[in-house]
Amino acid sequence: MYGPEARIEYVSNTAVTVNGERYEYQPEKEGKGEVMNKIEFCASVAHEVNRRWCIANGDFSQTSWEDAEQWQRDSAMAGAMNALAGTTPEQSHAGWSATRLADGWRFGPVKDAVAKTHPCLVPYDELPPYQKAKDTLFIGAVGLAASVWWAQGH
After folding, report:
1. Domain segments of the chain: what residues?
2. Which of 15, 46, 12 lies closest to 29, judged by CA?
3. Which of 11, 24, 91, 154 could link 87 by a cystine bridge, Cβ 3.0 to 4.6 Å?
4. Which segments of the chain does DSSP mark as H helices, in order?
């Protein structure tokens, strides 16, 4: 039904259309159905890939998917939806930044969820190379996870 030939289009940071049918990420909604379960699977895989990339680069601030705060899961779900819709790393970062800023976050030298500061709240071109790579890895991991999902017959 939603295999590799599916037409996925970006609508917003929390919505996509799949073959013309609109899907919105609503974390409070139970029984999300197959499309949202696939997006959550893709988000969890991409989150773990990013966590391991961060560890390899000396950043131990990322928790596992199971231990992630809901805002982190929501962010990964929105990022996965956008990745499935074909966003570039630059677009992904811009969407992530816009969402953080709208939620009251601001630039700060240290990531701090309580103070709502993050060192990556800068234009994409100003990110350090390993952070740019993280955006690229996230998008690639979403694509890989989606392929696994389809290969498993979902």
Report:
1. 8-151
2. 15
3. 91
4. 33-56, 70-84, 89-102, 129-151
Rounded to whole angstroms, how far apart are CA atoms 87 and 102?
20
Amino acid letter for position 78: A
Amino acid at 14: T
Q: How do 117-118 and 106-107 pair as beta strands?
A: parallel
Which residues are CB-contacts of 121 (< 8 A; sequence separation ≥ 6)? Answer: 97, 100, 101, 105, 106, 107, 108
Residues 6+ apart with CB under 8 A from 51: 62, 63, 64
Give the residue with greater pLDDT, 153 vs 75: 75
More confident residue, 2 or 19: 19
Q: pLDDT tens digits, residue range 114-131?
A: 999 999 999 999 999 999
Q: So what's the pLDDT on residue 47?
A: 93
Closest CA to 22 of 33, 9, 13, 34: 9
